[in-house]
Design brief:
mainly alpha; 3 helices
């Protein structure tokens, strides 16, 4: 019984961390979307450094989320 409670506590902590990473990813994606909203063609390429930085930030968040899920840490 004690093992089950500990496992549930551990899973709850992991799920809370995953939820926090998901919220962060949503915010990052929304920021990228608003950066490109209403632009097309060459105008969409103008903020390229910002877009690349945004994608890199999302990739980092995904790596940290993966670590929290599979590596056991909150990253």
């Amino acid at each position: 019984m004690a093992i089950t409670r500990q496992r549930c506590r551990s899973e709850a902590t992991t799920l809370e961390a995953l939820g926090a990473f998901d919220k962060l990813l949503i915010g990052q994606a929304e920021l990228l979307r608003t950066t490109l909203d209403g632009t097309s063609g060459e105008a969409a390429l103008a903020p390229m450094p910002d877009l690349q930085a945004g994608v890199a930030a999302m990739a980092d968040t995904l790596r940290r989320r993966q670590t929290a899920l599979f590596g056991g840490g909150v990253g």
